[in-house]
Amino acid sequence: MSSTDHSGWDSGPAAHRDAIAAESARFVEVIRDARLATSVPGCPGWTLTDLVRHTGSVQRWFSVLLRRLVQEPPRSREVELDLPEQQDGYAGWLAASAAEAASTFAVTDPDAPMWAWGADQHARFWMRRMLFETLVHRCDAELALGRRPSIDRGLAADGVDEFLVNLPFAAFFAPATAALRGNGETLRFRCTDTDGDWLVRLRPDGFGTEQGPGGTGAAVSADATVEAAAADLLLLLYGRLDRDAEAFQVTGNEELLTRWFTNSAF
């Protein structure tokens, strides 16, 4: 994958809201004239129709959660989808889903306390989560169509952080993460083209993520290390790339790396 520079990338809620709109617009353009029966390698068993339906549905569901500022886990994921009757209506439907999200953001305080499944119990959690859900699936669509996705390097590094910080809380829908236990073993993930350096530590009771001191180039010792451009690192963590690819410099305990990638599927 390729990274593009975006000097001054701000990982705050305003930037996340703007990026959701931009990623959604890119996604719409990717699928506008595509054959929606095309298989999506990044989501086995799915076609582009399934991918678009999922992404738009998530945007609409998250918008409902944000408007209600829910204070406990919702009992249902039922939401009015207004799905198009014809395949050629899906591009417009996805654009309408993004517009619904944008209208929700306009009336939502990102600092408002609310339930979230991850580390940050505020409305901003759902904005950030919606962004990377949309971005990764935009890349899925491009890959399905034989295109090479491009991801801003600052945005990609923010996505790596969002993934690693929230993964310890994902066991209720990613049960394999419960196997990520240990006795202090560490994995390091480092961006080679922008600031971003994380240390994941496996403990007897679970695992947790620490941001490496000093960003890129920090002297962090780990039992296993994966280094790559931010865009490649993001797609590796999401299982869209293989760590054996030339894009990655991998060192250290191979068994530990295998355990991580086997059980960290999101």
The CATH homologous superfamily of the largest domain is named dinb family like domain
CATH architecture of the largest domain: Up-down Bundle
Question: What's the overall geometry?
Answer: globular
What's the total helix number? 7
Query: Low-confidence spans: pLDDT under 50, at least 5 residues?
Result: 2-7
In which order are the strands of the major sheet placed? 5-4-3-6-7
The overall strand count is 7
How would you sum up this structure, described in words?
The chain has 266 residues and is of the alpha/beta class. It folds into two domains: 147 residues, dinb family like domain (Four Helix Bundle (Hemerythrin (Met), subunit A), Up-down Bundle), CATH 1.20.120; 91 residues, SCP2 sterol-binding domain (Nonspecific Lipid-transfer Protein, Chain A, 2-Layer Sandwich). It is built from seven helices and seven strands, in the order βααααβαββββαβα. Strands 5-4-3-6-7 form a five-stranded mixed β-sheet. Strand 4 and strand 5 form a beta hairpin. The longest helix is centred in the middle third of the chain and has 22 residues. The protein is globular.
